[in-house]
Amino acid sequence: MPDPRRARLDPAIFNLPADKMRDGYYSDKYAVHTRDVLRRDGDDVPVTVQLSTRHDALLGGIDEAIAILKLCSQDWSALEVRALHDGDAIVPWEVVLEITGPFAHFVHLETPMLGVLTRRTKVGTNTRRMVEAAKPKDVMFFPARHDHWMVQTGDGYAAHVAGAIGVSTDAQASWWGTEAIGTVPHGMIAAYGGDTVLAAQKFTEHMPDTVRLVCMADFENDCVRTSLALADALGGRLYGVRLDTSRQLVDASVLPMMGQFRPTGVNPQLVWNVREALDAAGHQNVRIVVSGGFNVQRIREFEALGVPVDAYGVGSSLFAGRFDFSADVVRRDGKPCARVGRAWHDNPRLEPVR
Question: Any idea which fold 126-319 has?
């Protein structure tokens, strides 16, 4: 049986502005000038270009980069392309994409290709690190509000490949054909006069049973009381509660315990307070989702302490770090031709792209 992970995304799914990319509108001007000089000079000697990064990472954006080549190069049939796959683990300086053909056919695409590889690899790598830290708990991908809407689709796919179990917008879920997930938010609770239970009841009244009900429990900064009220009122319809206490606040249940730990925000003691209260009231099946400033280190700390979290909602920390890629001409007409320090590197893991 072929590995289904080896199937690449259809270039059409990326909805690329192909005409503008082909013209060089999204390219660094030096790349456009290089293309134009080579064309006017009639230089069609094939070169080999290799793309790599300096980082250990989880590769993302490779199918998107291939789509850019297929749809925006001068002549795809004139190129020989080998590549890794989205979701492959890579090491520093490993070649992830190799292109051989007349340079003028594709040099102007260097900028957008490097951009998508850098962006998607960053999101995918950060997500995978969160997933590994949280195992076997779930990680939910919730960073849409922290960046431009145009990046959502590719970022969501990168997170999906990296192991996130849910995304927050339908755009993020579109490339693999599912829908987003969400909670009863603070805004809906405020729209019902600050009554969390009423907001959740209205949710169940107007949303189908197939939509999981996860409700924010920190609107009144009393997560234990609110979680119990939700569980008592909604019974089995309540899938979970989400704790998102501000890092400037101390939850009501934590106030009497202050002195031995950092009491603000979503801290381990708050989660234990909610879990113990729910269990004592017979609501063992209600899950606890936590969010608000979680990163790899914080997830590891929670897991090392055995904090009874069922899922982590992660946002802006998924955009942290640098995962720059570079593209280098390493051969001309089959012969070595690279700047010092960037010679051709073999990578037997590369697969031909049809």
Answer: TIM Barrel (3.20.20)
